[in-house]
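Our collaborator T.R. sent over the components below with a one-line note: 'Predict the complex.' Nothing else. No constraints on interfaces, no templates requested, no preferences about which chain binds where. So this is a plain run: every listed entity goes in together, and whatever single assembly comes back becomes the starting point for the next discussion.
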Amino acid sequence: MLAVNFLLLAAVLFCIGVFGVIARRNAVMVLMSIELILNAVNLNLVAFALMNNNQEGQVFALYVIAIAAAEVGVGLAMVLMIYRNRKSIALDELSEMKG
Amino acid sequence: MLASLFAQATDWVAPTIDWHAIAPELVLVVGINIILLLDLSLADAKKWMLATLSGFVMLGALVPVVTLFVIGDDSRSMFGGRYVIDEYALVLKGFFLLVAYVVILMSQTELEEGGYYQGEFYVLMLCSVLGMVMMTSSRDLVSIFVALELLSIPAYMLAAWNKRNPKSNEAGMKYYLLGVFASAIMLYGMSLLFGATNSTLLTEIGATLVDGNLSGIEVVGVVFVISGFAFKISAVPFHTWAPDTYEGAPTPVTAFLSVASKAAGFVALVTIIYLAFPNASDVYQPFIWVLAALTMTVGNVLALRQTNIVRMLAYSSVSQGGFILMPLAFAGEANASGSALNAVVVYLLVYGFMNLGAFATVIAVSRKTRSGEISSFGGLFSYAPGMAVLVTMFFASLAGIPPLGGWFAKFNAFKAVLDAQSSWAYVLASIAAVNTVISAAYYMKVLRTVWMDEAPDGDTSPINTPSPIKAALGLTLVGTLVVGVYPQSVANFGDLEDLTGTTELVVVVDAGG
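Returned assembly:
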């Protein structure tokens, strides 16, 4: 069935996103990787809604889109704040506290 | 497409809304808007009024919680069972509002003296509390997700509140990245659960999952959802953000995160486990068993070598989280299920009071010493005997020494685990017993400094504690003492019948399968 392809695509996107979060050191790239995961979720929800003929999945996807926008807004503001203080957004340099 | 939607619109019926049942949320929403508007027009010298007003909003929201509790006939359910106000929800709503009230008392002077943005601080904190209050009633994947984000997003900003301090930036950024990553993983799990069960309603998911017969998708969904919440409650190995965030954030915010935000994570976990996963215990029980054992042990061992008091309290709160998690590892056993729910709720209530109290003493003492090191507590007994006694009370309660509240909470958690009567339960209880001893070591280290050591800089001028912090200390002390001396006061709060009347659904499945 066609919807299965969407699920495969979503799984691939999810894996790329998780890899990006773990491997990238640039804060904006990490934010984009998180967006990839959230979009994998949206694809999943819409594909399942199609497979099960259930509107709830589409409604859920709308909520996810709206809240992901709010999250990224806060995240970019935080990246900007860190850039102003340190002139760098490399995450591995954020290590003042240890132990 | 649109035409078919309009055709359906005629048989759409507006859901009936029980205004009394959602009155606490409404009071909070109105309060948030009033404070936001007042903040625009208020002169800087009068900003302190916002703190008082936020306190009144919390107490105002507490009024309908109390009236609902007094009427207390049966659970009120709205939106097709997606939003339920029952005993469990009411007890925890009251708890979150009280905790937030105490945190406002603690942060008032800190904000005024630090020159922080006061109006925005209270607005964001109230938003976060609104999310927690919603979380207690949410019985649907969508509403749980929305409540979780509503309580998390303001908390990310609060952690980075001291925006010119690189440490606070780092705290906020780490909390944000790991928090968002965790909620993305959780959402992926939720989407798989939705796909496998064709519903977002927790009780319907619970009725579809059948133990021993779970498909791969369902197992992955269950594990991802629990992992997502494990970040929120800072369970090992998902705890790495907690110490850094707690140390870098302003101390009142740390108190808020370590009590309220963590409790909200537990509330969501309990709701999901009891409603959606009652028949997936083969999957979640071993997972939570491992998480609980690791969380207690790693948190304690790392807390032993800390020299900064806030960082030590951060690791101590990680390990306390392990104790709260412990009974949930047996939530699916028939003879331990009820006492596990009771133990988690009681532990959360007690932990809230004693941990907030410990943070309040840290704030009060560090106002004078200007230091976060444990050694700066030296000589406290000689110049502030009252504060020394308070520190002793709260830390002894955290260590679980009778007759203080922490003792009863730990006792209840052990009882719930032993009720399961399996060899796995006895092993976990032994691990927990060893950990109780380890934790006593670092709590006692602080008490030794307070009672035995000299003041490090020889400064023995008395402590000047502002009245809001005194009030916070008083409230938390009463909570800690009353529970310890008279445990029945909260034991009944934890004695909840069932979360939603779901037991019927589960029985139907058992009969069919």
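Summary for T.R.: The CA atoms of residues 46 and 58 of chain A lie 5 Å apart.
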